Amino acid sequence: MQNTPEINRDNINRFLCPNCAGNMTFSAETQALTCPYCQYKQQVATAGTVEERDFHTALQSANNNLQPMATNAMQVGCGSCGAIVNFTPPETATWCDFCGSKIVAQPKASDPLVAPEGVLPFGVPQDAAKKSFNTWIGSRWFAPSALKNMSQAERLSSIYIPYWTFDAYSTSSYTGERGDHYYETEHYEENGEQRSRQVRHTNWYYRSGNVSRQFDDVTVPATTSVLPKYVEKLNWDFTDLVPYEPAYLAGHKAQTYQITLEQGFEKFKEIAYNVIWSDCRNDIGGDEQRVNNIDINYANITFKHLLVPVYASAYQFKGKAFQIVINGRTGEVQGERPYSWLKIGCLVVAIVSVILFILILYAAFKK
Q1: 365 pLDDT exceeds 70?
Q2: How many angstroms separate the Cα of 248 from the Cα of each of 27, 119, 121, 345?
Q3: I need a labelling partner for 290 at 20 to 30 A (CA). Which of 91, 220, 315, 320 fits?
Q4: Residues in Cβ contact with 96 at an 8 Å cutoff, skipping those fewer than 6 apart
Q5: pLDDT (tens digit per residue) in 211-266
């Protein structure tokens, strides 16, 4: 039986093929490091499980827990939108994947950051993503022809975007009011006749109490480069989440988080507040509820820094940036495109012409 070559561990972050010394990349199709030259495949070696990290401990020792994405990772920043992307050579970044601007900054060694605990590997190959993109752009009836003729699919970049997830146990005390409806018969006169109707009234009673809830894996996007309306539609199934290994970045890029851990927790609290507010209303009961004040305490706060896959591209059209984002697990396309007012105008003229033609025929037929 032939022995399987081992990847040189001294060069693990260069991802050199043990057969031909070519640069291997992580393939969504094979779910392994794959050499584009000799097709040699090597499974990514992961150890352990994706662990939750204590939030307060991480804040107290923040400077001691920072490290780059990979030992030889490089990064560039976009001077237009501020996005920072990491990549491992020989990958490069010359265009911003989020606003379409040309990147003029020189690459530098990647800055240390809170290391990812887990990653959702790419599941959709680039060819399939390009096909989804071309199908999407081809279905945009009122997109300018110049846009449809642009080979933007060639600039689709595979890039991991950052998320935080938070777990916490909340205990909350609240004050509020419970409203109970009751009805009274009201008599009135209409058109000289005596009538009656039921009129609803509400009695309000002061209420206070305590509620508790365990929050588990509440996701907070750590990117501001992807438009919020697209981030909201990027749904992730974390069943296939794996412990982070630099090998998953081979051939792809990764965005540095723009929302820090502390800022991420503040956003988590905004999400949690709405849930706790509903819990308080349910606890108050009655027909209507008023929640006047909530005092919330969080305990056992843990978090994860995760990377999730997208194909991203942005293009400039008549001075405005338009963004395309494709879910790297499902292939679903989210994006913007400009409208061709010439095409819309031609359609309106065609519709009006058809209507006038029908009216002329109708008038001639009546004669």
Answers
A1: no
A2: 9, 8, 7, 48
A3: 220
A4: 78, 80, 81, 83, 102, 103, 314
A5: 999 999 999 999 998 888 888 888 899 989 999 998 999 989 999 999 999 999 99
